[in-house]
Design a protein that fits this description.
Layout: E1 5-7, H1 13-24, H2 28-41, E2 43-49, E3 52-60, E4 78-86, H3 95-109, E5 114-120, H4 127-132, E6 136-143, E7 146-154
Parallel strand pairs: 4-5
Antiparallel strand pairs: 1-2, 2-3, 3-4, 5-7, 6-7
Helix pairs in contact: 1-2
Length: 160
């Protein structure tokens, strides 16, 4: 399946919030608030199939509050991957892996030397997925009673 990631304009916040809500739960109001905030502060990307959003993610250069940068390989420009989600009806089809391949292309063009993220350290967390996609576990922490695993992928010349 060919997958294209495009920058989603803020006028589509409600559409992106629908996917966020379907994937992460909570209320639609909370999802809309989160997506709107991300569209203002970060770069929000979506993948579409037949006109429908089937995946979303946001990227930022600003370190998220739950991440301790001391666990990661020092690089000049790290890129942080936030809130990646694939529509439940499209999961287990390789879309998440294709999204991560596109994220690497975006990181190279940014230019960034690494992609950093955290995942819930639980059976329902996505940690194993990120490892299978070539991300390296660099640490485990507990932030506000939430166990997290930090992952990174070095880009271009930063790769070891």
């Amino acid at each position: 399946m060919a997958l294209k990631i495009i920058l989603e304009p803020a006028v589509n916040a409600a559409e992106v919030a629908d996917l966020h809500h379907a994937t992460f739960g909570g209320t639609i109001e909370a999802a809309l608030k989160i997506v709107t905030r991300r569209m203002r502060a970060d770069k929000v990307f979506v993948a579409r199939r037949r006109g429908q959003i089937i995946a979303m993610l946001s990227l930022t250069l600003k370190k998220p509050w739950a991440i301790d940068a001391s666990y990661f390989t020092p690089v000049r420009v790290p890129l942080y991957l936030l809130s990646m989600a694939v529509a439940p009806s499209h999961q287990q089809r390789g879309i998440g892996r294709l999204c991560l391949q596109e994220v690497e292309k975006i990181a190279i063009a940014w230019p960034a030397q690494s992609i950093r993220l955290d995942a819930y350290d639980s059976p329902t967390g996505a940690g194993g997925f990120y490892q299978r996609c070539g991300y390296r576990q660099v640490g485990k922490v507990v932030y506000r009673k939430t166990p997290l695993i930090y992952y990174e992928r070095l880009i271009g010349q930063a790769k070891t």
